[in-house]
Every structure is written in C-alpha cells, then in structure tokens.
C-alpha cells in the first residue's frame, strides 16, 4: 500500500492529503502530465490517474498520457477540452507559485501542517502528525 494511503488509514479523521502540482522543468513531460492529471481531476479521477502516471513516470510521452486517460475511463472529449482550457494551466501555475513560496525545490515534497517533512517514512509521518495533534489539543 502506498505510504500516503497508510498515513490516511492510520489517521482517517485527522489527515487530509492536498496535492499541489510542481512539475519539474527538467522532465519533458512533467507539465503535460500535470495538465492531464488536472483534466482527470475534473472528471473525479485525479488519484487513479495520478497513480498510473507515477507508475510510468520514466516512460511518459504524449501517447502514454492519452492511454492512461483511456485506461482509467475518462471521457476523452472532456479530457481534451480540459487540456486546452486556460483555467487548467492557471490552476497549475497557482500550485507552482504556492510551491515556490513554500520553498519546494523538488518532488515529492511533503508538508505536515505547513512544516516540511524530512523523514518520509510511516514513522516520520506519525511523529509529525502526533506532534501536530498534541499541539492542537493544548
């Protein structure tokens, strides 16, 4: 089970996962993949699409991006419309600005209540979450 799923399973009432796109400039298909994931989100299939993208990160190309959309059952006409919609690019640009302002330098970068998570393991997550929960209980 992916690590974030484990964290949510451990803290179902206390953890909310928020994803922000910060496509790497040195990855040719990072921005097209971010647009495609946003288009999938518009059809309620963000995480399913996201997970398939990351499974294939080293093989991404335009055809793979479309194939994944078809595999997860997206309406391809709506998908194409979202890809070309300026609001899609605008949402990604907003995410990138948030990332820059937070000091994101690479992906993945994880924050817990606005604090950078340095130990990306279940134990690292639990330590930060427990500390945040204890502080909010005071």
The number of strands is: 2
**Shape type:** globular
Q: Per CATH, which architecture of the largest domain?
A: 3-Layer(aba) Sandwich
CATH class of the largest domain reads: Alpha Beta
Tally of individual domains = 2
Structural category is: mainly alpha
Terminal CA distance: 33 Å
Helix content: 55-70%
* Order of adjacent strands in the largest pleated sheet: 1-2
Could you name the key traits of this structure?
138 residues; mainly alpha; Glutaredoxin; 2 domains
How would you describe this protein?
This protein is an all-alpha fold and 138 residues long. The protein has two domains: 1-18 and 109-138, no CATH class; 23-104, Glutaredoxin (3-Layer(aba) Sandwich), CATH 3.40.30. Helix content is 59%, strand content 3%. It has seven helices and two strands; from the N terminus they run ααααααββα. The chain has helices spanning 3-10, 30-41, 46-55, 62-71, 76-84, 86-102, 122-137; strands at residues 111-112, 115-116. The chain has a two-stranded antiparallel ribbon with strand order 1-2. Strand 1 and strand 2 (115-116) form a beta hairpin. Helix 2 (30-41) packs antiparallel against helix 3 and helix 2 runs parallel beside helix 4 (62-71). It is globular, with a radius of gyration of 16 Å. The model has no long low-confidence stretch (mean pLDDT 94).
Briefly characterize the structure.
The protein is mainly α and 138 residues long. The longest helix has 17 residues, at 86-102. The protein is built from seven helices and two strands; from the N terminus they run ααααααββα.
């Amino acid at each position: 089970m992916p690590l974030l799923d484990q964290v949510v399973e451990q803290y179902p009432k206390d953890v909310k996962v928020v994803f922000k796109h910060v496509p790497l400039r040195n990855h040719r298909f990072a921005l097209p993949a971010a647009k495609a994931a946003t288009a999938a989100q518009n059809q309620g299939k963000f995480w399913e699409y996201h997970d398939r993208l990351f499974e294939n990160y080293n093989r991404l190309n335009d055809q793979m991006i479309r194939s994944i959309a078809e595999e997860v059952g997206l309406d391809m006409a709506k998908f194409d419309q979202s890809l070309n919609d300026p609001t899609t690019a605008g949402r990604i640009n907003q995410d990138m600005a948030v990332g820059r302002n937070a000091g994101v330098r690479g992906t993945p970068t994880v924050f817990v209540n606005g604090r950078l998570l340095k130990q990306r393991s279940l134990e690292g997550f639990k330590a930060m979450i427990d500390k945040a929960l204890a502080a909010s209980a005071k």
